[in-house]
Write a structure and sequence with these properties.
Blueprint lengths: L3 H6 L2 H10 L21 E6 L3 H12 L2 E4 L18 E7 L10 H10 L3 E11 L8 H20 L5 E7 L7 H8 L10 E5 L17 E5 L4 H12 L3 E6 L4 H10 L3 E4 L7 H8 L4 E6 L14 H24 L3 E10 L3 H4 L5 H22 L4 E7 L5 H4 L3 H9 L9 H12 L10 E4 L8
Parallel strand pairs: 1-2, 1-3, 3-4, 4-5, 5-6, 7-8, 7-10, 8-9, 10-11, 11-12, 12-13
Helix pairs in contact: 3-6, 7-15, 9-10, 10-12
This protein binds nicotinamide-adenine-dinucleotide.
InterPro entries: KR_dom, NAD(P)-bd_dom_sf, Sc_DH/Rdtase_CS, SDR_fam
Keywords: Oxidoreductase
Protein name: 3-oxoacyl-ACP reductase
């Protein structure tokens, strides 16, 4: 599960060789450490002319104590220049005022000078208005074009940086703090080139050091890999966690549950009585459900057996649907609950030898989209997180050649860590994240697959 090339590329000899031969040059990504308070460890530059910056300003000094603006006197902040300013750790550009094609050059004018002044792992967020919310076709096209800009900048930024686009809808400005705390901090280390829509949400995070305090969360497939990390991060953020896995994983599951002060439930999610047993195991109900348990049984379609096809559909797709329905029927999912489904970029891009897996993961995205309107009436959000190549036992089992290709074919030239997926899940699980529903967030280092 270790990436030896990453270590080599960051050694003095490796750096020289990688540069001389033009090989992929992955940098060590910064990740969130427990106990850290400020999301941005350095200078944050605000730019653009739209109304959304006014919503950012009241909490911007909680993100960092080094705030700058792109123009003299803007927002009453000191002006940043590449010559005199500190290295930039984060940039927020409000592009919501752009309605004419001639204005698009403002994107270049703002970002070009910053390239000389970026720190390592810089985080960029562009703010805009969802094209479908605009009546004027030109304005809608201009806002849609921000997607192309964001995704291209993500591929150019390097240094372990990331670039995202947030379309802010009605009421969404009230939830910008949670979104920016995620996208401007190392919590989103392996997320780049993503486009999300923020809407209104009645709930707000009260304590940013423990945003999930008082919440009860269930994580399936929690004995190892990504699931174990999700349980850990949700517990770090204050949630009471119930960890579920198959009976064969009982020892690891119980050990982790004990360490996190949570509870272990051993259950095969495909068992006929799984819905009933799950409901019985959760007398007090739940606020957060994370459907993470998943399997692969790879074969090309020509060689795909019934058993390979059915087992993958049953675990990855049918069980999340059946169990969520059972929790809803038994009234175990509290109002303002959060459901997060773990999909995969295979479900977006498709993958050789994975028709069964891609079907199941595309289906999971379909579940989030299909369920969102009905669940939204109770304030419940449902989203999918689609990991790319994550360093786990699942990917360690991939043959070397394919494994190396999967690892490097992304803007960060490396695989992600289970923590990267877990941080995204934890953000979706927050009270204010009801502002996001029926959406897919890729945690893939901006993988070239399906981009
Ligand atoms: P993993 O194999 O390390 O862990 C999966 C866990 O699910 C295991 O603990 C397993 O016991 C549990 N599980 C499997 N079948 C179960 C069942 N019937 N009932 C209860 N528990 C069951 O895998 P991982 O790499 O940590 O993947 C976690 C999730 O992320 C999966 O849904 C996977 O498809 C998805 N994913 C992983 C990657 C990656 O690169 N590792 C990429 C994209 C998506």
């Amino acid at each position: 599960m270790s990436d030896r090339y990453l270590a080599f590329a960051n050694s003095p000899t490796g750096r020289r060789l990688v540069g001389a031969l033009g090989l992929p040059a992955p940098v060590r990504l910064e990740r969130w450490m427990a106990g850290r308070v400020r999301p941005v460890d350095g200078a944050l530059l605000l730019g653009g002319e739209g109304d959304l910056l006014k919503a950012v300003l009241p909490f911007a000094n909680k993100l960092t104590d080094q705030l700058f603006a792109a123009r003299d006197g803007q927002l009453e902040l000191p002006r940043w220049t590449a010559e005199h300013g500190p290295k930039l750790k984060a940039l927020v550009f409000d592009a919501s005022h752009l309605t004419r094609f001639e204005q698009l050059i403002e994107l270049r004018d703002f970002f070009q000078p910053t390239f000389k002044g970026l720190a390592n792992s810089p985080r960029v967020v562009v703010l805009g208005r969802a094209p479908e919310s605009l009546k004027d076709p030109v304005a809608a096209s201009v806002q849609r074009s921000l997607e192309g800009f964001t995704r291209s900048l993500g591929k150019e930024i390097r240094r372990g940086g990331s670039v995202q686009l947030l379309y802010v809808g009605k009421g969404g400005d009230q939830q910008l703090e949670g979104a920016l705390r995620f996208f401007l901090s190392p919590k989103s280390a392996y997320v780049s080139g993503q486009v999300l829509r923020l809407g209104a949400c009645a709930e707000q995070v009260r304590d940013w050091t423990r945003p999930l305090a008082g919440k009860k969360a269930l994580v399936t497939g929690a004995s190892r890999g990504i699931g174990a990390s999700i349980a850990e991060v949700l517990a770090r953020d204050g949630a009471e966690v119930v960890l579920l896995d198959v009976p064969q994983a009982a020892d690891a599951l119980q050990a982790l549950a004990a360490r996190l002060g949570g509870r272990a439930v051993t259950l095969d999610i495909c068992a006929e009585d799984a819905p009933q047993r799950l409901v019985e195991a959760l007398p007090e109900g739940l606020d957060i459900v994370v459907h993470n348990a998943g399997i692969t049984r790879d074969k090309t379609l020509a060689k795909m057996s019934d058993a390979f096809w059915n087992s993958v559909i049953d675990v990855n797709l049918k069980a999340p649907q059946v169990l969520t329905q059972a929790l809803l029927d038994a009234d175990k999912l509290h109002d303002n609950g959060r459901v997060v489904l773990i999909a995969s970029i295979s479900g977006i891009a498709g993958n050789m030898g994975q028709t069964n897996y891609a079907v199941s993961k595309a289906g999971v995205i379909g579940l989030a989209q299909a369920w969102a309107p009905a669940l939204g009436k109770k304030g419940i959000s449902i989203n999918a997180v689609a990991p790319g190549f994550i360093e786990t036992q699942m990917t360690a089992a991939i043959p070397l050649g394919i494994r190396e290709a999967g690892r490097r074919m992304n803007s960060m030239s490396q695989g992600g860590l289970p923590q990267d997926v877990a941080e995204a899940v934890a953000w979706f699980a927050q009270p204010g994240s009801g502002a996001v529903t029926a959406q897919v967030l890729r945690v893939c280092g901006q993988s070239l697959l399906g981009a």
